[in-house]
Amino acid sequence: MPMAPRIEIAAIAGSLRAGSWARALLRAAADRVPPCVGLTIWEGLEEVPPFNEDRETRPAHPAVAEMRALVEGSGALLIVTPEYNGSLPGVLKNALDWASRPYGASALQSRPVAALGTSPLPSGGASALSDLKRLLMRIRADVVDAELAVGKVHTKVVDGKIADPELADQIDQLLAAIAEHAAARVSVLVDA
């Protein structure tokens, strides 16, 4: 029986703060990936310059090129976003703008993407998650129907681990869903 191909997932935390709950949750989730799945957390968000369409025809900024290469080389993308002022952080939106360009050559088009929202509030960043999902659909990413809003995240991620059994189960299901979605996409591309 042939082995299942290894699925690589690129991951982005939408916060620049080193101690952010989005980063903590992403790192804790990375420890829970299923067998035959790799997860690479991209740490270059702070280096991405403001999006400028005039710069699209020039060689990409190194941080933009690195992000695009990671996304294009992965079977799927996982994004964890905090909620700032009722929406996703501007730096995350900016990075996704760069990844979606130039028009017709988006690193995100048809790429399976799963999203998590985080907040110390009970809402779990639901507004940011909704805005992120709308943006991803607009740029024609393949949004995996496995989104998750994690409220009171500060009580559920302790010492770098997911301390809440219900959340651990939800993260496991989300990771399995995105891996299955990516594997199905690879299968379709191979069969085409």
Written account of the structure:
With 192 residues, this protein is α/β, with parallel strands linked by helices. The protein has one domain: Rossmann fold. The chain is 37% helix and 19% strand. The protein has helices at residues 21-30, 62-72, 90-99, 126-138, 165-191; strands at 7-13, 37-42, 76-82, 112-118, 142-143, 148-150, 157-158, 161-162. Strands 1, 2, 3, 4, 5 and 6 form a 6-stranded parallel beta sheet that branches. The protein has a two-stranded antiparallel sheet with strand order 7-8. It is globular. The model has no long low-confidence stretch (mean pLDDT 92).
Task: Break the fold down into its secondary structure elements and pairings.
Elements: E1 7-13, H1 21-30, E2 37-42, H2 62-72, E3 76-82, H3 90-99, E4 112-118, H4 126-138, E5 142-143, E6 148-150, E7 157-158, E8 161-162, H5 165-191
Parallel strand pairs: 1-2, 1-3, 3-4, 4-5, 4-6
Antiparallel strand pairs: 7-8
Short description:
The protein has 192 residues and is of the alpha/beta class. It is built from five helices and eight strands, in the order βαβαβαβαββββα.
| CATH class value | Alpha Beta
The chain-level structural class is alpha/beta
Instruction: Report, as a whole number of angstroms, the end-to-end distance.
Output: 22 Å
Superfamily at the CATH H level? Flavodoxin domain
Task: Give the fraction of residues assigned to helices.
Answer: 25-40%
How many domains make up the 3D coordinates?
Answer: 1
Strand content: 15-25%
Number of strands: 8
Please tell me what the overall shape is.
globular
User: Which ranges are low-confidence, i.e. pLDDT below 50, for 5 or more consecutive residues?
Assistant: none
CATH architecture field: 3-Layer(aba) Sandwich
The name of the CATH topology is Rossmann fold
Largest sheet: 6 strands, parallel
Q: Would you tell me the overall average pLDDT?
A: 92
What is the tally of helical segments? 5
Radius of gyration: 16 Å
Secondary-structure element sequence?
EHEHEHEHEEEEH
